[in-house]
User: Fold this.
Amino acid sequence: MTVKQNLARIQQEIDAACQRVGREKNSVKIIAVTKYVSDERAKEALEAGISHIGENRAEEGARKWHVLNGNGTWHFIGTLQSRKVKEMIEIFDYIHSLDRLSLAKEIQKRASKIVKCFIQVNVSGEDSKHGLQPSQLIEFVTALSQFSFIEVVGLMTMAPNEEDPEATRPNFRKLKDLQKEVQALKLPYAPCEELSMGMSNDFHIAIEEGATFVRIGTSLVGKEM
Ligand SMILES: *Cc1c(COP(=O)(O)O)cnc(C)c1O
Assistant:
Protein backbone atom coordinates (compact mmCIF):
# COMPACT_ATOMS: atom_id res chain seq x y z
CA MET A 1 0.00 0.00 0.00
CA THR A 2 1.17 3.51 -0.69
CA VAL A 3 1.30 5.99 2.17
CA LYS A 4 -1.38 7.95 0.36
CA GLN A 5 -3.75 4.97 0.43
CA ASN A 6 -3.04 4.26 4.08
CA LEU A 7 -3.48 7.91 4.92
CA ALA A 8 -6.88 8.05 3.22
CA ARG A 9 -8.07 5.09 5.28
CA ILE A 10 -6.66 6.44 8.54
CA GLN A 11 -8.07 9.90 7.91
CA GLN A 12 -11.51 8.31 7.46
CA GLU A 13 -11.15 6.52 10.77
CA ILE A 14 -10.05 9.75 12.43
CA ASP A 15 -13.02 11.62 10.98
CA ALA A 16 -15.38 8.89 12.18
CA ALA A 17 -13.89 8.92 15.70
CA CYS A 18 -14.22 12.71 15.83
CA GLN A 19 -17.80 12.49 14.68
CA ARG A 20 -18.68 9.93 17.36
CA VAL A 21 -17.69 12.34 20.11
CA GLY A 22 -18.55 15.64 18.44
CA ARG A 23 -15.03 16.89 17.77
CA GLU A 24 -13.78 18.91 14.82
CA LYS A 25 -11.84 16.56 12.57
CA ASN A 26 -9.03 19.04 12.08
CA SER A 27 -8.44 19.04 15.84
CA VAL A 28 -6.39 15.84 15.42
CA LYS A 29 -2.94 15.92 13.85
CA ILE A 30 -1.18 12.83 12.53
CA ILE A 31 2.47 12.22 13.33
CA ALA A 32 3.93 9.71 10.87
CA VAL A 33 6.32 7.59 12.91
CA THR A 34 9.09 6.73 10.46
CA LYS A 35 11.43 4.86 12.83
CA TYR A 36 10.94 1.52 11.04
CA VAL A 37 11.15 2.69 7.46
CA SER A 38 13.53 3.94 4.80
CA ASP A 39 14.28 7.54 3.90
CA GLU A 40 12.30 7.06 0.69
CA ARG A 41 9.24 5.94 2.59
CA ALA A 42 9.53 8.90 4.99
CA LYS A 43 9.80 11.20 1.97
CA GLU A 44 6.69 9.55 0.54
CA ALA A 45 4.84 10.46 3.74
CA LEU A 46 5.76 14.13 3.35
CA GLU A 47 4.73 14.03 -0.30
CA ALA A 48 1.39 12.47 0.67
CA GLY A 49 0.71 15.64 2.62
CA ILE A 50 1.73 14.60 6.13
CA SER A 51 3.63 17.39 7.81
CA HIS A 52 4.49 15.84 11.18
CA ILE A 53 7.29 13.27 11.40
CA GLY A 54 8.15 11.29 14.55
CA GLU A 55 11.43 9.53 15.36
CA ASN A 56 12.43 7.82 18.59
CA ARG A 57 16.20 7.50 18.23
CA ALA A 58 18.60 10.42 18.30
CA GLU A 59 21.14 9.37 15.66
CA GLU A 60 18.62 7.91 13.25
CA GLY A 61 16.29 10.88 13.68
CA ALA A 62 19.07 13.37 13.02
CA ARG A 63 20.21 11.41 9.98
CA LYS A 64 16.71 11.30 8.46
CA TRP A 65 16.18 14.98 9.18
CA HIS A 66 19.28 15.83 7.18
CA VAL A 67 18.37 13.52 4.31
CA LEU A 68 14.90 15.11 4.13
CA ASN A 69 16.41 18.61 4.37
CA GLY A 70 14.52 19.35 7.55
CA ASN A 71 11.20 19.46 5.70
CA GLY A 72 8.15 19.07 7.91
CA THR A 73 7.67 19.42 11.65
CA TRP A 74 9.79 16.98 13.65
CA HIS A 75 8.75 15.24 16.85
CA PHE A 76 11.18 13.42 19.11
CA ILE A 77 9.11 10.64 20.68
CA GLY A 78 11.78 8.44 22.27
CA THR A 79 13.70 8.53 25.50
CA LEU A 80 16.02 11.53 25.43
CA GLN A 81 19.48 11.22 26.92
CA SER A 82 20.92 14.40 28.38
CA ARG A 83 24.03 14.23 26.24
CA LYS A 84 21.88 14.31 23.10
CA VAL A 85 19.83 17.34 24.11
CA LYS A 86 21.85 20.00 22.33
CA GLU A 87 21.61 18.32 18.93
CA MET A 88 18.01 17.19 19.36
CA ILE A 89 16.54 20.55 20.28
CA GLU A 90 18.16 22.09 17.23
CA ILE A 91 16.49 19.57 14.93
CA PHE A 92 13.22 18.64 16.55
CA ASP A 93 10.33 21.06 16.92
CA TYR A 94 8.69 19.05 19.72
CA ILE A 95 10.09 16.82 22.46
CA HIS A 96 7.49 14.29 23.65
CA SER A 97 9.46 12.73 26.48
CA LEU A 98 10.22 15.28 29.17
CA ASP A 99 10.11 13.16 32.32
CA ARG A 100 12.77 14.40 34.74
CA LEU A 101 14.19 17.61 36.13
CA SER A 102 17.75 16.74 35.08
CA LEU A 103 16.55 16.70 31.48
CA ALA A 104 14.72 20.01 31.92
CA LYS A 105 17.92 21.47 33.35
CA GLU A 106 19.93 20.32 30.36
CA ILE A 107 17.38 21.72 27.91
CA GLN A 108 17.51 25.06 29.73
CA LYS A 109 21.31 25.06 29.53
CA ARG A 110 21.44 24.24 25.81
CA ALA A 111 18.46 26.13 24.42
CA SER A 112 18.57 29.47 22.64
CA LYS A 113 14.82 29.58 22.01
CA ILE A 114 11.66 28.16 23.62
CA VAL A 115 11.52 24.35 23.40
CA LYS A 116 8.05 22.86 23.04
CA CYS A 117 7.78 19.86 25.33
CA PHE A 118 5.26 17.21 26.23
CA ILE A 119 5.55 15.74 29.68
CA GLN A 120 5.53 11.97 29.42
CA VAL A 121 3.33 10.30 32.01
CA ASN A 122 3.29 6.59 32.76
CA VAL A 123 -0.44 6.32 33.34
CA SER A 124 -0.57 2.55 33.11
CA GLY A 125 2.13 2.16 35.78
CA GLU A 126 3.92 -0.59 33.84
CA ASP A 127 7.57 -0.90 34.90
CA SER A 128 8.73 -1.08 31.31
CA LYS A 129 7.33 2.34 30.44
CA HIS A 130 9.08 5.64 30.85
CA GLY A 131 7.43 8.70 32.26
CA LEU A 132 6.39 10.29 35.51
CA GLN A 133 3.91 8.67 37.81
CA PRO A 134 0.60 10.55 37.71
CA SER A 135 1.04 11.49 41.38
CA GLN A 136 4.32 13.29 40.57
CA LEU A 137 2.96 15.40 37.74
CA ILE A 138 1.73 18.53 39.47
CA GLU A 139 4.88 18.95 41.53
CA PHE A 140 6.97 18.41 38.41
CA VAL A 141 5.07 20.96 36.30
CA THR A 142 5.30 23.50 39.08
CA ALA A 143 9.06 22.97 39.39
CA LEU A 144 9.50 23.74 35.69
CA SER A 145 8.84 27.42 36.42
CA GLN A 146 12.59 27.88 36.92
CA PHE A 147 13.32 26.93 33.28
CA SER A 148 12.49 29.87 31.03
CA PHE A 149 13.14 27.98 27.78
CA ILE A 150 10.63 25.19 28.45
CA GLU A 151 7.03 25.38 27.31
CA VAL A 152 4.74 22.54 28.35
CA VAL A 153 2.53 22.21 25.29
CA GLY A 154 0.88 19.02 26.48
CA LEU A 155 1.05 15.54 27.96
CA MET A 156 2.13 12.32 26.29
CA THR A 157 1.64 8.69 27.17
CA MET A 158 2.45 5.27 25.76
CA ALA A 159 -0.45 2.94 26.42
CA PRO A 160 0.20 -0.74 27.04
CA ASN A 161 -0.09 -2.86 23.94
CA GLU A 162 -3.40 -4.60 24.52
CA GLU A 163 -4.95 -7.26 22.35
CA ASP A 164 -8.21 -5.38 22.69
CA PRO A 165 -7.59 -1.65 22.19
CA GLU A 166 -10.72 -0.89 24.18
CA ALA A 167 -8.77 -2.00 27.27
CA THR A 168 -6.47 1.03 26.87
CA ARG A 169 -9.29 3.54 27.14
CA PRO A 170 -8.92 4.19 30.90
CA ASN A 171 -5.26 5.20 30.33
CA PHE A 172 -6.26 7.80 27.77
CA ARG A 173 -9.04 9.08 29.98
CA LYS A 174 -6.61 9.40 32.86
CA LEU A 175 -4.23 11.49 30.75
CA LYS A 176 -7.11 13.80 29.83
CA ASP A 177 -7.96 14.22 33.53
CA LEU A 178 -4.33 15.04 34.29
CA GLN A 179 -4.33 17.61 31.49
CA LYS A 180 -7.28 19.35 33.14
CA GLU A 181 -5.40 19.43 36.44
CA VAL A 182 -2.38 21.06 34.80
CA GLN A 183 -4.54 23.55 32.92
CA ALA A 184 -6.26 24.52 36.17
CA LEU A 185 -2.91 25.73 37.49
CA LYS A 186 -2.95 28.43 34.77
CA LEU A 187 0.81 28.52 34.51
CA PRO A 188 1.93 30.79 31.67
CA TYR A 189 4.63 28.34 30.58
CA ALA A 190 2.27 25.34 30.67
CA PRO A 191 -0.80 25.91 28.49
CA CYS A 192 -0.92 22.11 28.09
CA GLU A 193 -3.40 22.20 25.23
CA GLU A 194 -2.19 19.05 23.48
CA LEU A 195 -2.50 15.34 24.20
CA SER A 196 -0.07 13.04 22.40
CA MET A 197 -1.62 9.58 22.65
CA GLY A 198 -2.74 6.75 20.41
CA MET A 199 -0.77 4.57 17.99
CA SER A 200 -1.64 2.26 15.07
CA ASN A 201 -3.87 -0.09 17.02
CA ASP A 202 -5.65 2.31 19.36
CA PHE A 203 -5.65 5.82 17.87
CA HIS A 204 -9.41 5.79 17.35
CA ILE A 205 -9.94 5.25 21.08
CA ALA A 206 -7.36 7.91 21.96
CA ILE A 207 -9.20 10.39 19.75
CA GLU A 208 -12.50 9.64 21.43
CA GLU A 209 -10.74 10.46 24.71
CA GLY A 210 -9.23 13.72 23.48
CA ALA A 211 -5.95 13.06 21.62
CA THR A 212 -4.75 16.01 19.54
CA PHE A 213 -1.63 14.27 18.19
CA VAL A 214 -1.75 10.59 17.25
CA ARG A 215 1.58 8.84 16.58
CA ILE A 216 1.12 6.29 13.81
CA GLY A 217 3.86 4.09 12.40
CA THR A 218 3.00 0.59 11.28
CA SER A 219 -0.43 1.15 9.75
CA LEU A 220 0.58 4.36 7.98
CA VAL A 221 4.11 3.97 6.62
CA GLY A 222 4.67 0.30 7.44
CA LYS A 223 7.33 -1.50 9.36
CA GLU A 224 10.25 -2.46 7.13
CA MET A 225 13.32 -0.69 5.89
C1 LIG B 1 6.96 3.32 17.53
C2 LIG B 1 6.18 4.32 18.28
C3 LIG B 1 4.89 4.70 17.85
C4 LIG B 1 4.21 4.09 16.64
O1 LIG B 1 3.84 2.78 16.85
P1 LIG B 1 2.94 1.95 15.80
O2 LIG B 1 2.30 0.91 16.61
O3 LIG B 1 3.89 1.42 14.78
O4 LIG B 1 1.95 2.88 15.20
C5 LIG B 1 4.22 5.66 18.59
N1 LIG B 1 4.78 6.24 19.67
C6 LIG B 1 6.01 5.91 20.11
C7 LIG B 1 6.56 6.60 21.30
C8 LIG B 1 6.75 4.94 19.44
O5 LIG B 1 7.97 4.62 19.88
Remarks:
- The longest helix spans residues 3-21.
